[in-house]
Structures are given as structure tokens and as C-alpha cells.
């Protein structure tokens, strides 16, 4: 397996808010139209207050980082032209009771079938795609990724404030998002046929309406020849997004090497993963986590070190060791988006300070 085979791309979801009040505004169609005129394709999400960017295909962290930076700045500029502010935040810090659903036949069908669940405005994630040769490989790599998903969530947690107050969680988005019947950690699948049978059952039961509604945090992409990792809050900064993508790519490479040796991924119980997810959503990087592989509680920073030990050979092969080592050191010193949101609110107790801080982080480095 050549490192160039492990291509990587990123999709980021963003919130559009009023530039003065910080309240989400349903302007995604207008902002996307402005972006189209600027040569950038912004996707519309279920809620009218969201847009999504998509990078091209990359083989180096540096070029990915530069494209994420360019896309964020362009999207922010297009939002400003429509009297809105673009925020890289995983839930709105302040929200109205409801926001309109984006007008499309598919989104209207989702809203009709899932009721108020579809009306929670503005849950924003980040999806990392890594190239794989086929769907069978994507499913097997997903099994290897399962133990590391809670830690990836803790690293990128960016939704600690909701409805104007601290939630007590670093990633409140993760808690809200898992109410969907197809969201959260995926089951362990013996093969791609096992995966497809589960999806068919979900379709026949009505718990999903189409295959794009398979919201598991790892899945074979419905659109690309990739394994798609969807566990993350949208990171606060460009560098954190590139850091996440590089680490996911290294985990996938490590998994591919294990598969080539004929090794089998650990078949973790759903209960252990649920507990580890909750711990990661609650604490982020600032407390203890649960290691799904051992079932033991440990400081999140110790779990980060354990992950680094696991992927260092792959990072060296990919040429990303220095970028990830330096990026993690900075992240652990400065805190992720959740940490920074809470710090901004505690300084003066003003939600406006949180909105300003998030805006600056969104288009900075």
C-alpha cells in the first residue's frame, strides 16, 4: 500500500448567525448563491441556517490546510455580503424556538417523517474521507476505527454553550445528534454483506429514508470510494481540522496494515462504546476518558498519548509526524473550541464575547 493511495478530503458544516445578536439566520440559499458567483460550491443542509464546504482530494496535510483556510474565508465573506456571520461551532450558542427546514423534496420528507427531531437547528459536524480500494475494506477499516472514535470526539469538541448557557458538556452536539436512530458509533460488521443487510433493515423499518441517512460515525461513503469518519464536531480552527484529518488518515493506514497481516479488529461491545462516547462528550480534553480497549478510566491526555503511540509509524510514513506532534501540543496547551467557548463566557458573562471569539477562530489559523 502506497501512502498516495490514502487520499484525504474534508467536509465542514457551518452555522450562519445574525452578526449582532448571534441568533441563527435562515440564509443558506442566499449565501450559497453568492458563493456560486465566487466560484465556490456551498452545500445546503437540513436547517436553513447551515452551509457545508467540501475540499478536493489531497495527499498532504499542508495543501489540505490551505484549502480549508481558503474555503472558510470565502464562505465567511459570502455570509457577510448577506448580513450574516459564519461560525465554526457545532451547535448555536443561542437559538430561536425553531428555524425553517431548507426547501428541498428530500429535506421536506425527512422533516415530515421525523418531526421535531428534524427541527433542532444547526448541529454542525466535520466529515473526513480517506480513500480505500473498495467497500469491503471500508467496512473492515471502520471496525478498527471504532475504539478511537470517542477520543477523536474529545479532541474536536466544540459545543459547550447552548441557549446562552454552559451545558456542562464539551460536545453537546454529540448528545443531541445521537437521538437520530441511525447516528452514533456503528455496530461491528463481519463483512460488507452484513453492513448492507443492516442498512436494508433500517430502510424497511423507516428509521432511515435513504442510504444518505446512514449517520453512523464511520461508514463507507455513499458518494465516494472512501471510508467516511463523521464523529467530530466541526473544529473551531483550520489547523484543528487539518490535524483531525491527518490523524484519521494515519489510523486508516494503521488499520490497512493490520488487515494486510490478517489481523482482526477488536469487537467492542456497544455498552463500552456508549460509555466512552458519553465520557468524551462530557469532558472533552479537560478530564478523564474511558479507554474502550481496556474498559479503564484514564486522563484524556494519556489516551491521546496512547493513540499517538499507535499511529506514529503511519504518521512517519505519511510525512505528518511533525505536523501532528506540534498541532497536538498546541491544542493541549490552548484548549479546543469547547474550552475556548466556556472561557470566553466566563470572562465577562457575555454571549457576545463567545460569538466574537468563535468568529475569529473560524477564519484564523
- Low-confidence stretches at least 5 residues in length (pLDDT < 50)? none
Alpha carbon gyration radius: 19 Å
- Strand % is 5-15%
Q: Major sheet, described briefly?
A: 7 strands, antiparallel
- Number of contiguous helices: 13
Helical content class: 40-55%
Overall mean pLDDT score?
Answer: 94
By secondary-structure content and strand pairing, the structural class works out as: alpha+beta
The gross shape turns out to be globular
Task: Tell me the series of helices and strands, N- to C-terminal.
Answer: EHEEHEHEHHEEHHEEHHEEHHHH
In whole angstroms, the N-to-C terminal distance is 32 Å
Topology, number of strands: 11
Quick take:
This protein is an alpha+beta fold and 365 residues long. It is built from 13 helices and eleven strands. The radius of gyration is 19 Å and the shape is globular.
Structural write-up:
The protein contains 13 helices and eleven strands. By secondary structure, the protein is α+β, with helices and mostly antiparallel strands. The strands form three sheets. Strands 1, 2, 3, 4, 5, 8 and 9 form a seven-stranded antiparallel sheet that branches. Strands 6-7 form a two-stranded antiparallel ribbon. Strands 10-11 form a two-stranded antiparallel ribbon. Helix 1 (28-37) crosses helix 2, helix 8 (238-260) packs across helix 10 (300-318) and helix 12 (337-348) runs antiparallel to helix 13. The longest helix is centred in the C-terminal third of the chain and has 23 residues, at 238-260. The mean pLDDT is 94.
